[in-house]
Design a protein that fits this description.
The complex is a heterodimer of chains A (287) and B (259). Chain A has 287 residues and is an alpha/beta fold. Chain A has helices spanning 60-75, 90-99, 128-141, 157-166, 205-216, 232-241, 251-254, 258-272, and strands at 25-26, 43-46, 49-52, 79-83, 105-111, 145-149, 171-174, 178-180, 183-184, 189-190, 197-200, 223-225, 245-246. The longest helix of chain B has 13 residues, at 199-211. The chains are: A alpha/beta (287), B alpha/beta (259).
Chain lengths: 287, 259
């Protein structure tokens, strides 16, 4: 799968790859109303990673349905719509009831963990009870596959995952970005205009792998793992740690073709290691 | 317009002076489709540091070759400068929207190009394609030593005027001040101004274009992560909302921008 926020609404990647060979596309997060997002500069490079504070810029649900959804539908693979609310929980519910009317959308991913929306003291994803509430409310209103995406900026991600599972999530996806900062030493200012921003890329991989392992041991529902996957071995780390599926994010910026290279690479790995079913690997960590 | 991701062989790599380098790449698909103002996004290393690609304007096209002109300013450009003829470079392009200009010979007025520092890079390609019209280019730099591509512009048939901050060559002052001085002469009314350089220079050019009711196209720069329009990192404020410098840009009509 391709991770939310790293693949737009897929159009930008059509020149580089056969999109229909992907397992699924997770859209850039949508809110009910259009959002302009944060002022530039919104990104900067860090050692083996990058910081971003886009601020959930998106055209809003209606324009997405009009302008972006047709292209996604044409690809013919499962569409996962990532949604977030600017003032939860009512917006989440409104979003979900409208998405229920779109048959081509296979799943909804709840972005309760994006750190880039200003004005929030703590994210839903940092509070087990708040997570439970919102997932439960959304669960009541949709039969679509419901994925809850978790933030790593917590003390116990297992606890949050358990909460999401109890509330009716069909799957858990993790991790979102880690809170970080990079400073321009000359100007003594943060390099990203918002100051604190989200870290992604290979730098966060060990944290993500650890958290996938922790969540895998706490829930029975499938785990979708992501966080710095750049090749087949790193994808396998997540699977061995307990991920049933993996998502590629930042790596798409470095090599637009990487997601498909990993898909075919994983297939080759199974063949050359005589593994009949990738399920054998899921959670097979010997610890 | 279609974009390509390919391996381009380095045909030549030359240090021009100081930290300035010129490199030619074999990239027929990109060369065939490239327009002045567009850029390529280069992966300089297959390690994790530097992680992201670096965008560089297309400096010129000759047959199946594309040319880049760059300054070594940090780790990534340092790595790029150490690559040798024969090595392969992973590049994506031609990205961005390019300058808008007519192909007819009927342009009555002059085309004015304004280049601040490394702004010469995309304007060289533009000058070559604008060949049939009258082109005057104003090149600005801090000192005489930092003036770039002067002879190349002359060879491309441009009338060249220079500006240096310290007065060591040509007009003393900023290149935007030189433009202002020229505009104060009533007969100097270019058909279009094409500018590339520091943001402040571009703002000054935009203000003058507005004051004298002239058309100006500005090539902007912004930090990029993906370079292909997916991450929304490189946005700039325009009167029509936020636009991506890598996709709706890097060239914007001066009157479109919201400073």
């Amino acid at each position: 799968m391709t991770a939310s926020g790293t693949f737009g609404y897929a159009e930008e990647f059509q020149d580089f790859m056969e999109l229909k060979k992907l397992g699924a596309i997770v859209t850039k997060t949508l809110t009910l109303k259009p959002r302009q997002g944060n002022a530039a500069p919104r990104t900067c490079e860090t050692p083996a990673g990058m910081l971003n504070s886009i601020g959930l810029e998106n055209p809003g649900l209606e324009i997405f349905i009009q302008d972006k959804l047709p292209f996604l539908k044409k690809i013919g693979i499962p569409i996962v719509m990532s949604i977030a609310s600017e003032e939860e929980p009512e917006e989440f519910l409104e979003l979900v009831s409208r998405i229920n009317l779109i048959p081509e959308v296979a799943a909804v991913e709840l972005n309760i963990s994006c750190p880039n929306v200003r004005g929030k003291n703590s994210l839903i994803a940092q509070d087990a009870e708040a997570t439970y509430q919102i997932v439960q409310e959304v669960r009541k209103r949709t039969d679509k596959v419901l994925i809850t995406k978790l933030s790593p900026n917590v003390t116990s991600i297992g606890e949050i995952a358990e909460s999401a599972e109890k509330a009716g999530s069909d799957a858990i996806s993790l991790i979102n970005t880690l809170g970080g900062m990079s400073i321009d030493v000359q100007q003594r200012k943060p390099k990203v205009s918002s100051g604190i921003a989200g870290l992604s890329g290979p730098a966060i991989r060990p944290v993500a792998v650890r958290m996938v392992w922790e969540v895998f041991n706490k829930v029975k529902i499938p785990v979708i793992g992501m966080g710095g996957i750049t090749d087949v071995p790193s994808a396998l780390e997540f699977i061995i740690a307990g991920a049933t599926a993996v998502s590629v994010g930042t790596a798409n910026f470095i090599n637009p073709k990487i997601s498909l290279a990993i898909v075919s690479g994983l297939k080759e790995y199974l063949v050359s290691n005589k593994i009949a079913d990738i399920q054998e690997l899921v959670g097979s960590l010997k610890i | 317009m279609k974009n390509f991701q390919l391996s381009a062989k380095i045909l030549s790599q030359k240090k021009i002076k100081g930290n300035y380098w010129h490199c030619e790449l074999a990239a027929p698909l990109i060369a065939k489709n490239a327009c002045p103002g567009q850029f390529i996004n280069i992966r300089v290393s297959d390690t994790y540091d530097p992680l992201l690609r670096r965008p560089l304007s297309i400096h010129g096209v000759k047959g199946a070759k594309i040319k880049i002109f760059y300054k070594v300013v940090g780790k990534a450009t340092e790595i790029l400068a150490r690559k040798k003829k024969g090595e392969l470079l992973d590049i994506i392009g031609p990205l961005g929207n390019g300058f808008a200009f007519g192909k007819r010979k009927t342009e009555n007025g002059k085309q004015i190009l304004v280049a601040g520092g490394m702004g010469v890079a995309p304007l060289m390609f533009l000058a070559e394609r604008l060949k049939k019209t009258t082109i005057q280019i104003l090149v600005g730099a801090r000192t005489r030593e930092e003036l770039l591509c002067i002879n190349d512009f002359k060879q491309a048939g441009c009338l060249v005027s220079v500006a240096t901050d310290d007065g060591s060559a040509g007009f003393q002052g900023r290149v935007s001040d030189l433009l202002k001085q020229l505009l104060q002469e009533a007969q100097f009314r270019p058909q279009t101004i094409y500018a590339c350089g520091p943001r402040l220079m571009l703002k000054a050019v935009a203000d003058m274009a507005n004051e004298y009711a002239l058309t100006a196209q500005l090539s902007l720069e912004e930090h990029m992560s993906c370079g292909i329009g997916a991450c929304l990192g490189c946005v700039v404020k325009t009167k029509g909302g936020l636009k991506r410098v890598c996709k709706e840009g890097p060239v914007f009509a001066a009157k479109e921008l919201a400073w």
